[in-house]
Specification:
InterPro entries: Membrane_assoc_protease, NA-bd_OB-fold, NfeD-like_C
Order of helices and strands: HHHHEEEEE
Number of helices: 4
Keywords: Membrane, Transmembrane, Transmembrane helix
Helix content: 40-55%
Strand content: 15-25%
Radius of gyration: 28 Å
Membrane topology: Multi-pass membrane protein
Subcellular location: Membrane
Strand order of the largest sheet: 1-2-3-5-4
Mean pLDDT: 86
Largest sheet: 5 strands, mixed, barrel
Low-confidence stretches: none
Protein name: NfeD-like C-terminal domain-containing protein
Structural class: alpha+beta
Number of strands: 5
């Protein structure tokens, strides 16, 4: 099986590389760029070796995709992208320290708390409905809470 027309198989792979590169710009996620690189290498191979079978082209694309992803993962591990918001994609990390209200009484260590517009499963000491609590940890979608200290009554004036 061969592709006729301008560029043949090599041209098709380079068009695929271009489309993947554009898709990476439209939907950033730092993944499609690796596939675009693999498609470009496969396109160059198809130009260099005319008549290369489609199965070999697909194998080349799979191999170079794997290599590019592994190199990319290693690169981003060694050179992480700096951000002003270290918890940007860490929802559990963003919850730590938040003050919440008990939604369903925590009894025998289990209950529910109101977080934003949702109700989350919670674990912690017994607390009645409406009690304020602070999130100290998140484990498997369950928030661990501790009661907030009760405010001291204002001192009375003696006179």
């Amino acid at each position: 099986m061969t592709l006729d027309g301008v560029g043949g198989a090599g041209g098709a792979w380079l068009i695929a590389a271009l489309a993947l590169g554009i898709a990476e710009l439209v939907v950033p996620g730092v993944f499609l760029v690796f596939l675009a690189l693999a498609a470009a290498i496969t396109g160059a191979l198809a130009f260099a070796v005319p008549g290369i079978p489609v199965a070999v082209q697909l194998l080349s694309f799979a191999l170079w995709s794997t290599v590019a992803v592994l190199i990319g993962r290693r690169w981003y591990h060694d050179y992480p992208v700096a951000t002003d918001d270290a918890l940007l994609n860490d929802r559990a990390g963003r919850l730590l320290g938040q003050v919440v209200t008990v939604d369903v009484a925590i009894a025998d260590g289990h209950g529910r708390v109101r977080i934003g517009d949702g109700s989350w499963a919670a674990e912690g000491p017994d607390l009645s409905v409406g009690s304020p609590a602070r999130i100290t940890a998140v484990q498997g979608g369950v928030v661990i809470v501790e009661p907030l200290p009760s405010p001291s009554p204002p001192p009375t004036a003696k006179g």
